[in-house]
Design goal:
The protein is of the alpha/beta class and 219 residues long. It has two domains: 1-104, Formyl transferase, N-terminal domain (Rossmann fold); 110-219, 3-Layer(aba) Sandwich (Rossmann fold), CATH 3.40.50. The chain is 31% helix and 23% strand. The strands form two sheets. It has a seven-stranded mixed sheet with strand order 3-2-1-4-5-6-7, with helices on both faces. Strands 8-9 form a two-stranded antiparallel sheet. β4, α4 and β5 (108-112) form a beta-alpha-beta unit. α1 (15-23) packs parallel to α6. It starts with a strand and ends in a 17-residue tail after the last strand. The chain binds 5-O-phosphono-beta-D-ribofuranosylamine.
């Protein structure tokens, strides 16, 4: 099996990055994590990537001022140097230009801590609680120029608890993020996640009529 060469872009903690690195250690995983790039020199995930033996690079956006394209050309240089062909955004806190997103169309994925298209943007858990939703979750999607809007690859849902705090909800969502991100990268690397008419189709997906009740109640 020829493995696809994936890079992970991070800005901070890197727990999703760590989940991807761990999954990609399996011999039958269809992608290898060939590079981790941070746009902040102090990103905590860099140390974890190095400890795991993954090549790392820092492309500090602050060094490029307002020039987003110059930052992205430097980033692209790092990706080209490592022969990267799939990009995973994992807590990467920079908006990307249409030039960069178009270049990576169908090969760049992101994880978002909400059930898109609900709660795009930041502070998703507090906003989910404020809205009173009973089911919340996480989404992995292809990246398009519009933020948090690309074709959805995989989602996981969890019930919201009556007494939830944003922190408690975030921790439970993060746990499912760590499951679905490696699964979604697998689908993309295997070529099973295909974009058809602006939506993502998964080859070999089973029909499942399982019901998730939120909140759990004694009927
Ligand atoms: C995750 O909740 C992810 O969904 C969001 O940013 C957070 C990053 O966390 N995009 P980590 O750096 O992967 O721990």
């Amino acid at each position: 099996m020829t493995k696809r060469r994936a890079a992970i872009l991070i800005s901070g903690r890197g727990s999703n990055m760590a989940a991807l690195i761990a999954a990609a250690r399996a011999a039958d995983y269809p992608a290898e994590i060939a590079l981790v790039v941070a746009n902040r020199p102090q990103a905590a995930g860099l140390a974890a990537a190095r400890a795991a033996g993954i090549p790392t690079a820092v492309v500090d956006h602050a060094a490029f001022g307002q020039d987003r394209e110059a930052f992205e050309r430097a980033l692209q240089g790092e990706l080209d140097a490592r022969g990267i062909d799939i990009l995973c955004l994992a807590g990467f806190m920079r908006l990307l230009t249409t030039w960069f997103v178009t270049h990576w169309e169908g090969r760049m994925i992101n994880i978002h801590p909400a059930l898109l298209p609900a709660f795009k943007g930041l502070d998703t858990h507090a906003r989910a609680l404020a809205a009173g939703v009973k089911i919340h979750g996480a989404t992995v999607h292809f990246v398009v120029p519009e933020m948090d809007s690309g074709p959805i690859i995989l989602q996981a849902a969890i019930p919201v608890h009556e007494d939830d705090t944003a922190e408690a909800l975030a921790a439970r969502v993060l746990a499912v993020e760590h499951t679905i991100y490696p699964a979604a990268l697998r689908l993309v690397a295997e070529g099973r996640a295909r974009i058809v008419d602006g939506r993502c189709r998964i080859d070999g997906a089973r029909a499942d009529d399982h019901i998730l009740l939120g909140p759990a109640i004694d009927a």
